[in-house]
Amino acid sequence: MSSHGAPIPMTSRPCGPLKGEARVPGDKSISHRSLILGAMCIGETEITGLLEGQDVLDTARAMRAFGAEVTDHGGGTWTVSGVGTGGFAEPEQVIDCGNSGTGVRLIMGAMATCDISATFTGDASLNGRPMARVTDPLDLFGTRAYGRSGGRLPMTVVGAADPVPVEYTVPVPSAQVKSAVLLAGLNAPGQTVVTETEATRDHTERMLAGFGAEIATEVTDAGRVITLTGQPELKAQKIAVPRDPSSAAFPVCAALIVPGSDVLVPGIGLNPTRAGLFTTLRDMGADLSYENERIEGGEPVADLRARFSPDLKGIEVPEDRAASMIDEYPVLSVVAAFASGETVMRGVRELRVKESDRIDAMATGLRANGITVEDGPDWWIVTGLGHGNVPGGAVCASHLDHRIAMSFLILGMAATKPVSVDDGGPIATSFPVFEPLMTDLGAQLVRDNQPSG
Ligand code: S3P
Q1: Do β-strands 167-170 and 144-148 pair in parallel, antiparallel, or remain unpaired?
Q2: What local confidence, expressed as pLDDT, does residue 400 receive?
Q3: Strands 340-346 and 379-385: what pairing?
Q4: CB atoms near residue 379 (< 10 Å)
Q5: Closest atom of ligand 1 to CA, residue 350
Q6: How confident is the model at residue 1, as a pLDDT?
Q7: What digits encode the pLDDT tens for the residues 223-275?
Q8: pLDDT one-digit tens code per residue, 159-209
Q9: Nearest-CA residue for atom 9 of ligand 1
Q10: How many CB atoms are closer than 10 A to CB 76?
Q11: Which CATH code is given to the segment(s) 10-25+242-447?
């Protein structure tokens, strides 16, 4: 089942060279945060380049339910008139965050220190994901959460009327948990201190500073210690959302494995907490260059040029790189199938609690397509077959997971036989223009329940 409607079975056929420019949409992480932080300050925040994927649209709807005025001006430009820190109104209806773990976890944090209650739900994927990782630290502020067994949605969160500041060490490498605690800390008096032992994406910290909060990060032996002073007066901002490196991963990886390809993916953020995939691909011998490197909005940005790379080699991906490419392992495993030798991915337990169990979803689908994959609780190894030797030919389950669906469609572009997915619907959560964008480059994607044109 698709997250919002009937399943959309899709097939990707082996295709000729991919050529041209791939303008991928805005960054999903930054888009969620722009709407939420915009709702938490007084005044009008203007956002350009917002990702208009379903996940972000669900967050926009949620911010309206908490009292913010959120307006779509067309062409990716949105404004948010916020209600101020601690100013969230109690929603009249259940908040449906659809497929989005980022949406629900960040919003829970943002409302956790307001004197209101809210009930959250999502689709079958989101309602199966762990929420205790967020509600445990929120409990320390004085927030209470009542969910289903195992800390799952649907869940009612009762905000703390008199929140206290918190010191918390995040037990799993998760930017969502870190961000939920920081957003809750905004409306607690005094200093909230969050420590992370592994660096995860730092958009919340950067954006909070941009919105005028007093926030400092110190790198210590214990990890990154982030100190936020509560109850600031956040100031409305103009935000230009950069293009999403996690979406860029798909045309980049496709170009590396489809013979003769040469694709330019302009304006991609290379924040070190997000760019691990591109380093890994270069370590594997990918013809991937950074052109026109520049700083935009305080972030390193480059145009990525990816060309067909016939001599990819399997590598052991450094474990300490995992957080900086956590969403990119599915598509990396596809590239690994076309490399020579083993690609070893360790320290990736978090992949088991994403929109799907991503190790299991990819391992099962890759095996069905003739590729050898071994896996354990927090590791997996793909044995590459080299170019021209990947059979393909299977129908893969996408498990309500956009990145699984897109990864298998990329596989089909370079395998010997077509590869199908049972449901391409979830792609709309993060990359609604995936199909036309990849087709313009030369991919052959068809919706199986519709006549091909
Ligand atoms: C995200 C954090 C990551 C990532 C997700 C987006 C964010 O999740 O997988 O797609 O925007 O903070 P975790 O925080 O669970 O690692």
Answers
A1: unpaired
A2: 98
A3: antiparallel
A4: 16
A5: 16
A6: 35
A7: 999 999 999 999 999 999 999 999 999 999 999 999 999 999 999 989 999 99
A8: 999 999 999 999 999 999 999 999 999 999 999 999 999 999 999 999 999
A9: 327
A10: 17
A11: 3.65.10.10
Tokens of 263: 């694709």
Superfamily assignment of 28-240 in CATH? Enolpyruvate transferase domain (3.65.10.10)
| Nearest protein CA to atom 11 of ligand 1, as residue | 29
- Kindly name the residue from 327, 375, 401, 423 that is annotated as catalytic: 327
Distance CA 148, CA 272 (A): 37
Backbone phi and psi for residue 61, each to the nearest 5 degrees, phi listed first: -65, -40
Q: Residue 205 has what pLDDT?
A: 97
The model's pTM:
0.97
Query: Which ligand 1 atom lies nearest to the CA of residue 28?
Result: 11
* Ligand 1 atom with minimal separation from the 173 CA: 16
Backbone angles phi and psi of 306, in degrees to 5: -120, 130
How many angstroms from the chain centroid is the CA of residue 76?
A: 19
Q: How many CB atoms lie within 10 A of CB 255?
A: 32
Could you confirm whether 327 is annotated as catalytic? yes
Range list for CATH 3.65.10.10 in the chain: 10-25+242-447, 28-240
CA distances from 235 to 37, 331, 442 (A): 10, 38, 45
φ, ψ (nearest 5 deg) of residue 33: -65, -35
**Residue 141 pairs with which residues in a beta bridge?**
none
Ligand 1 mean position to 200 CA, how many Å?
A: 8
Q: What angle do CA 20, 22, 27 make, to 5 degrees?
A: 170
Other residues' Cβ atoms within 10 Å of the Cβ of residue 296: 12
Cα separation, 422 vs 427, whole angstroms: 12
Can you give the pLDDT at residue 297? 76
Q: Is 121 exposed, middle or buried (0-12, 13-18, 19+ CB in 10 A)?
A: middle
Beta strands across the sheet bearing 152-158: 95-96, 117-121, 152-158, 144-148
